[in-house]
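Lecture 7 notes. Example A: sequence first, then its structure tokens.
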Amino acid sequence: MTLNGTDTLYGATTSGGTNNAGTVFSFTNESGVWKPGNVYSFNGTNGLGPFGNLALDTAGNLYGTTYPGGANDWGAIFQLTPSGKGWTEHVLYNFVVSGKRFGASPSDGVFIDAADDLYLTTYQGGNLNDCSNPGCGTVLKVSAAASPGKNP
């Protein structure tokens, strides 16, 4: 779970939601009472079963990964941007296919640094010469500066 500066916790479920494809949810502390909220429901093509931790950047955007799902069903990196009517999802990257050096099947969510760059790991891909058929996995850095919902 991720906590922002206004007493709101964010987390993810691998199933449930409108399409039973997983959700991002919130709990907000209002006068000592934690109130649940649904931030976003996935549909499969934009991600399926968000997995691992979420990261919150300095602008209040949430980031995470899904495994599987996305356009190619090998997982996706997503950004949720708050707006007056809820949250808007931006798919930052759809993993292509297992066995590629860039990786596939993100496995542990994302971490964020002070510059709002994202770090994540994949379960497959990487050095194909030293590992079994789909590879050993990769560690990736994704620049958040180019993200659609990033405030200038």
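Example B, a different protein, same format:
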Amino acid sequence: MNELNIALAVIGVVLLTLGMFSRAISRISLLTEPLIALVAGILIGPAVFKVVDIAKWGDQETFLQQAALLTLGIALMGTALRLPISYLREYWQPLVVVLGLGMPLVWLCGSLVTYLLLGAPFLIAVLIAAIITPTDPVVAGLIVTGDVAEEHLPESLRHTISAESAFNDGLAYPFVLLPILILTRLPDDAVIHWLLYTILLQVGVAAVLGLLLGYTTGKALQWAQAKETTEPTSILAVALALTLSVVGIVETLGLDSVLAVFLAGLALNASLSRKPKESGDILERKGQVQEVAARFFDIPIFVLLGAALPWEGWFDLGWIGLVLAIVVLPVRRIPVVLALKPLLGQMRSTKDVLFLSWFGPLGAAALYYTTLSVQELQAQQVWVVGSLIICASLVAHGVSAAPLARLHGKHTQQ
């Protein structure tokens, strides 16, 4: 209990510090909020001051999985409410391309690089690649918001990065499940189960359920607004309550809750956007969900991750681990996005495509799928490699976010 209290105190101090100095931090190239939180977790964890050991709290993977899922759900809801519905209608082509063609190709590239460098069994390499295929809405949200991003990056690029990171988190579920099923079942049975149960039921039904729950909530909120039974500021409470409801219901049914909660947020957004005169106050306050989520709910997961890092496993990887951390991030994504440039419609600007190709950050989504995989397979190698690449991404994408945003803006002005 004392360790939990210490962890809560550290998380609180980190949140207070970030809240008071958020604007200054966003303008310092070498500092990002997730990276600061990660370092705080490392300091209190077994590697440094040894005041918090999450492994002693029970099943570490289960704890981290549930914490990552909650973080991811709230971040996805905030992203869905921040995205203009008009953007999704106008920029559907680049989204379809990066999701429909880009995701499988990123998975393939990641599988080949991981297999060749790591020397792990092929299906384990495929699983690790599936884990690091989806970009993260938590880290992406912090990259594309704030003074630096809003000053130097075009709105369409920022929305594309946010939308891709949100959509591909839920769509990554079948990519992760396929190698797990093949490793735990007979190949023929695994493929049939994947097609009928994972794709049709866990993903398809989850999508429909998420849309229905979000749309119904939006209509109920409009009715309450019209009848004056609720305050306009309650959009934050409604969004958080909807997140918990969707995650709880969909997880209980054994479905893809990550996709469901994002689609629920989009449906809520769309239902509130249809009648702006009746929902004006609600619409004006949608942005607060993202702001509160980024400050209060997103950061703690990185403190917990820092306290749980498998340092001994990293050292056992030796130089291969270092090479993997450096190589896999650019190779898995940059060639794919650049190759798809002719198909990206409105996103054909070279500087936009280059920025999009690099910024596929990892975070809570990859942590969720990593811990899910470890629970299913009891494969510690997945946790060691997955956590290593997640941390490499937090450093690489975090440190490069502000400088590359300024560089993009500089070239735009010339």
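Note on Example B: DSSP finds 20 helices and no strands in the chain. The chain has one domain: 2-413.
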